[in-house]
Amino acid sequence: MHRGNTGMMGLGNFSTRRMAALLRKEMLETWRDRRALWMAVCFSLLFPVMIAGSTTFFVKKHAEETTRLALLGAERAPLLEQRLRSDTLKVDALEQGEPRALLAGDYDVVLQLGEDFAGDYRNFRTPQLYLYVDSSSTATGRAERHLQERLGKLQQLVVGQRLVARGVAPQLLAPWKLEVRDVSTPSGRGAMLLAMVPGLLILTLFVASLATSVDTSAGERERLSLETLLLQPMPAWQVIAAKTLAVASMGWLGSLLAIAAMVALMPAMPLAELGIQQATTTAGVITMGLLLLPLALLVAVVQILLALRSQSFKDAQTQLSILQLAPVTVLMALDMSRVELDHPLWQLVPLVGQQQWLKSLLVGDPVSLPLVLAGSAASLLLVAMAVALGARALRRESLLGAL
After folding, report:
1. Which regions span the lipid bilayer (predicted)?
2. pLDDT < 70 positions in the chain
């Protein structure tokens, strides 16, 4: 009995050493691939910079954006020019001008008063205003809405003054008064602005591990090194598991860099001007990285399986390039369709669960630890099933002939 136990322990230690040697070999080959490493690093740093830049540009553009209005016939209604002018609406009173030429120049909209404007206004008739716009201009819609808003407020003021002059209470024309009160929190507004970030973080996993997964599967098969590896006395699941860990390390590195870059750029983003408070802490960053680890393993093993079943190295690249668009497409479709994802079962679904957790952590909201553990366990279960499926595929002789 003692010899039997000693033999089994020796066999277990030998299997562990083989697994460690195989994992070391896969890790070295993965991290020595400079092309794959640079691809992972560059893409991971690219999208946080794009989000920070686009947010800054958006806020700056709207803060400095003003509407240029050319007012023709202003001498017929001097008060109209004064009432329309504001910090964001610049009014230039012109004695003459051709609306088409003015719109082609420096003006966003042109407002022209009718010839009988003054007489009609004094006689309580409806004077005519002509608004000229260029619908082919991108700024026209915003400028038109801005002017309509200013004219609407001025119209209400004139109507109220006329009613008071005749002894009629203006309240008779307004049976109720609607006041909009925004009860959203900074974290809620932040969730809307940063809704795209979780999807891009997940996309980073796919892109960062793409080159490595193709090279370690379809690439090794074309170089005939996979056949040599399969001739070694080790279970097929260990081969798939070692390759999965190596590929996942590259994808996980990409996601960690993306998270770190995103959080580092947040102080430079004008979030405060949008009413958003940066609530992500160092603990939140570490938590986000840990939450993406099971998903990194799942993405890696799925990429390896798809690459193994491909006909060639180029075919594997094509299939995985299409695959990497799938998660963002699905997550964007869920957001745009406004599907309610509040049910706890949604957090057991890979991709969806990670998206919800990342959204909460980015704006400082708490996440449920039991649901996180259950969702991560579900992802790891799928990883184990995929490893078993990959081990069966490696035992097929037709795999090495799929060149």
Report:
1. 191-214, 244-265, 285-308, 320-339, 367-389
2. 1-15, 57-65, 138-139, 173-176, 178-195, 270-281, 335-342, 363-364, 397-403
The SS3 call for residue 54 is helix
> Strand pairing partners for 132?
110
Characterize the bridge pairing of strands 109-113 and 67-72: parallel
Q: What is the pLDDT of residue 383?
A: 92
Domain ranges of the chain: 23-58+187-399, 66-173
Question: Within the chain, what is the greatest distance between any pair of CA atoms?
Answer: 116
Question: Which pLDDT score, from 0 to 100, does residue 2 have?
Answer: 47
Give the tokens for residue 253: 């590195």
What is the 8-class DSSP label of residue 91? E
Q: What is the DSSP string of 246-300?
A: HHHHHHHHHHHHHHHHHHHHGGGS-TGGGT------HHHHHHHHHHHHHHHHHHH
Q: Do the beta carbons of residue 353 and residue 375 sit within 8 Å?
A: yes
3-state SS, residue 279: coil
What are the structure tokens assigned to 374, written together? 């259950």
pLDDT at residue number 289: 85
d(CA 256, CA 204): 9
pLDDT at 377: 92
Long-range contacts of range 19-23, CB-CB < 8 Å, 24 or more positions apart? 19/234, 19/238, 19/241, 19/242, 22/234, 22/238, 22/239, 22/242, 23/242, 23/245, 23/246
**Per-residue pLDDT tens over the stretch 140-160:** 777 778 788 878 778 877 777
The torsion defined by the Cα of 36, 394, 20 and 23, in degrees rounded to 10, comes to 0
Position 378 scores a pLDDT of 92
Domain 66-173, CATH 3.40.1710.10 — does that match? yes
Give the sign of the dihedral formed by CA 151, CA 157, CA 160, CA 165: negative
Q: Output the pTM of the full model.
A: 0.65
Pull the structure tokens for residue 7.
């033999």
pLDDT at residue 11, rounded to an integer: 46
What is the pLDDT, as a whole number, of residue 4?
47
DSSP assignment, residue 170?
G
How long a stretch of residues is the chain? 403
What tokens appear for 363 in the block? 């704006």
Q: How far apart are CA 18 and CA 24, in angstroms?
A: 10
